[in-house]
Structure formats: structure tokens, C-alpha cells
Design brief:
CATH topology of the largest domain: Carbamate kinase
Strand content: 25-35%
Largest sheet: 8 strands, mixed
Distance between the termini: 31 Å
Helix content: 25-40%
Low-confidence stretches: none
CATH architecture of the largest domain: 3-Layer(aba) Sandwich
Length: about 400
């Protein structure tokens, strides 16, 4: 008997009618001869409503209590879905994260899953029940409620798939798959049938919002096939799997942009051993993820160090860097919030020359200035002015023929 994990996001369970739809869809999957575990998010808008109330009370809510607060949205969703399944003639049990031992570390708001106890889930499945699990949340070793960050229900679903040895993890969402670019920017973008874990990990980390980055990482580490498909129809979507030989035949798989980007420059930093570590160690301790890093050529014993972070982290970075500029004796700190990162991703870059040259030529011909460049084996990222980002995506999407080929 097959076992499949199904995840439904907030839009998919945003109304009672949609919850009934998910219940019927879950029952059909079970009636087709499979065991079904359903992971759900809070109803659409509920998490934002809870966060807004907390911020009406204080500008800086306590992190532990915020996790207690925002995790309540999923409790409502799982109970309503289980009730809907019973009302439709099925059997179901709902579980909060602490009931199934979804253990995490203690980083509130961005916790990472450590382990899962699948005992109660397996017992419910043996009773022919559909198991409904609250996504997005966990519990640390001290019993404190934690949350996994926005999109964390994806990671919950993949973690359960790995723990239970599921045949697949289906991510049901309001789009019908993974596209070569955001269709809102490139109307001719088309759905990708199959994409490798590595490619999807890059796309997710570079601005694509279909899957949470950590869910892809978890799937790759545990070889969990992910099927991204629409919550509103039965059509096949996009599969995320281990790399296949045919995937390298495509130079570029997709183009994405990330406008949640800010650039920071420390001017005239002493060019001495250990100084760069002094810059980035406090950022790491504060949990700030640094992306693109550029160090200029040394002149007269000093150099400029420039890096990018999420725009939402900019104020925190300023707070950390301001005193450090005095300690290091730099010429000051410059920040820029109106930048974006535009990226090309494709496993075929390993075996196809000229991708970078064509990308730079296309942007240069359009008068788009590239401020920073970051590369890996399967990606090229360019930091540009935010106002140029959508044009850059369209130009690159067209230059590599992504709107013309049909996979």
C-alpha cells in the first residue's frame, strides 16, 4: 500500500468550502488504495492577523510568545479538516506537532527540525484513518512551542515523508507547478515537468516562492520526491527529484529575482588577517544570513568589503556594524536598500560554456549595470538596481529561449 504526504497551504484551506474540497480530495486519495497524511497551514490571512495583533501591543514582541501565538492558526485548520473528513463519511485524527514529537532546536521563529516520532501517526494509519498534522510548528527539548518560519509547512511535510518512508510528498498550492520564471513578470513562462533538487534549492534560495528552501534541502538529503501541483484541479504538476542525465541538456532551467535584498559596504577596511572574520562573526551569531560577498583589491593597506543580506535584516545589520566600523577604524558604512538579485539556474551550466557571457552581454546591451556577481556550478546571480530587476528577468528569460521551449 502506498503512503503519500499531502500538504495544503493557507489559500487551499482559506474557507470552509475549500476545507471541504481538501477533505474530499484526501478521501479520494485514500479510496484509491493509499494511506494519506495531510499537513495543513493556517487559514489564509490568519497568521498575518495574529502577528498584527502582537505588534499592536508592542514593536518587539517576545519571540517565545510569538511562536505560542502564531502556532494557534494551524490548530484551527487541522481540527476543521478532520471534522470535514468525518462529515464526509471518512475517519481522521488531527495532531499538533508536540503530539507527534516534531522536535526542533530552540531558535524561535526559524527553528530547524531535529527528529520526528512517527508512533501515533502509524497507529492512526493502521486504523484506516487519514492523519491531519499541523504544519509550521514544532517543540524544543524544553517543551516550548517553536515555529519553522514562513513556508514551514512545506518542511513539516517533507520531514514526515522522510520519517515515514513515504512514496512521495505532494505540495498542493495555488499554482500548478514550478515555472521557468514568475508568470507575472514573464507571461510566456512555462511549467517545468521535472527539476533536480539542486536546481530547485538554488531557485528557492534566490527568490522563487513555490517551496521553502529548507524543505528542498530536507528532500534532497533524504531523497524524498516532491510533486508540486495545484490544490484546485487534478492535473499533474512539477516533480522535484534527484538529478537525471537529461537535465544537463538544458543550459538554463529558470530565471528568478529577489527584491528582498540590501547591500552593505564597509569602506577602507584594514587589509589584515582576521579582519573579515571580525566582520562576519557577529552577523552569524545574530542569525543573519549573508549572501553575496565582494572584497575589492587592496590599496594602501585598506580595502572595501561589500555584501548583501535580506532587506528585512538591514536595520539589525546596521546596529551590529556601526560600532564595528569604529573598532576596526574603517572610513564608514554605506547601505543601499533599493537593489535586487537576478539569477539564472540550470544544471546544464556545468557542461555548457558561454552562459555567463551571454547573460552579461544581454544586460549590458540594455544599459543594466551589474553591481555584484555571485556564481556556483549551476547558478549565476547579478545584483542590480531594484527598478531594473523585472526587465532583467524578461531579457534573460527570452535570451535563453525559456519561453519558447516546451518540456
Amino acid at each position: 500500500m502506498s503512503l503519500t504526504i499531502h500538504k495544503y497551504g493557507g489559500t487551499s484551506v482559506g474557507t470552509l468550502d475549500r476545507i471541504r474540497h481538501v477533505a474530499q480530495r484526501s478521501l479520494r486519495a485514500q479510496q484509491a488504495g493509499g494511506q494519506v497524511v495531510v499537513v495543513v497551514s493556517a487559514m489564509a490571512g490568519e497568521t498575518n492577523r495574529l502577528v498584527s495583533m502582537a505588534h499592536d501591543l508592542t514593536a518587539l514582541p517576545n519571540a517565545r510568545e510569538m511562536d505560542v501565538l502564531v502556532s494557534t492558526g494551524e490548530q484551527v485548520s487541522i481540527a476543521l479538516l478532520a471534522i470535514a473528513i468525518h462529515a464526509a463519511g471518512g475517519k481522521a485524527s488531527s495532531f499538533l506537532a508536540d503530539q507527534i514529537g516534531m522536535r526542533t532546536d530552540n531558535r524561535h521563529g526559524r527553528a530547524r527540525i531535529v527528529s520526528v516520532d512517527d508512533t501515533l501517526i502509524r497507529q492512526a494509519l493502521e486504523r484506516d484513518e487519514i492523519v491531519v498534522v499541523a504544519g509550521f510548528q514544532g517543540v524544543d527539548t524544553h517543551g516550548n512551542i517553536t515555529t519553522l518560519g514562513r513556508g514551514g509547512s512545506d518542511t513539516t511535510a517533507v520531514a514526515l515523508a522522510a520519517a515515514l518512508g513515504a512514496d512521495a510528498c505532494e505540495i498542493h498550492t495555488d499554482v500548478d507547478g514550478i515555472y521557468t520564471a514568475d508568470p507575472g513578470i514573464c507571461p510566456d513562462a512555462h511549467r517545468i515537468d521535472r527539476i533536480s533538487y539542486e536546481e530547485m534549492l538554488e531557485l528557492s534560495s534566490l527568490g522563487a516562492k513555490v517551496l521553502q528552501v529548507r524543505s528542498v534541502e530536507f528532500a534532497m538529503n533524504h531523497n524524498v520526491p516532491i510533486h508540486v501541483r495545484s490544490a484546485f484541479n487534478e492535473e499533474a504538476g512539477s516533480w522535484v527529484t534527484k538529478e537525471e542525465a537529461s537535465m544537463e541538456s538544458v543550459r538554463v532551467r529558470g530565471v528568478t529575482s529577489d527584491t528582498n535584498t540590501a547591500k552593505i559596504t564597509l569602506k577602507r577596511v584594514p587589509d589584515q588577517p582576521g579582519v573579515v572574520a571580525q566582520i562576519f562573526s557577529p552577523l552569524a551569531q545574530a542569525g543573519v544570513n549573508v549572501d553575496v560577498i565582494l572584497q575589492n583589491v587592496s590599496e594602501q593597506g585598506t580595502t572595501d568589503v561589500t555584501f548583501t543580506v535580506a532587506r528585512s535584516d538591514l536595520e539589525q545589520v546596521r546596529t551590529i556594524m556601526d560600532p564595528l566600523t569604529k573598532t576596526l577604524g574603517t572610513a564608514g558604512l554605506a547601505t543601499e536598500a533599493n537593489v535586487a538579485k537576478v539569477s539564472l539556474v540550470g544544471a546544464g551550466m556545468r557542461s555548457h560554456a558561454g552562459v555567463a557571457a551571454l547573460a552579461f552581454q544581454v544586460l549590458g546591451d540594455a544599459g543594466i549595470n551589474i553591481q555584484m556577481i555571485n556564481t556556483s556550478e549551476i547558478k549565476i546571480s547579478c545584483v542590480v538596481t531594484e527598478g531594473d530587476s523585472e526587465q532583467a528577468v524578461r531579457l534573460l528569460h527570452n535570451a535563453f529561449g525559456l519561453g519558447e521551449s516546451k518540456e
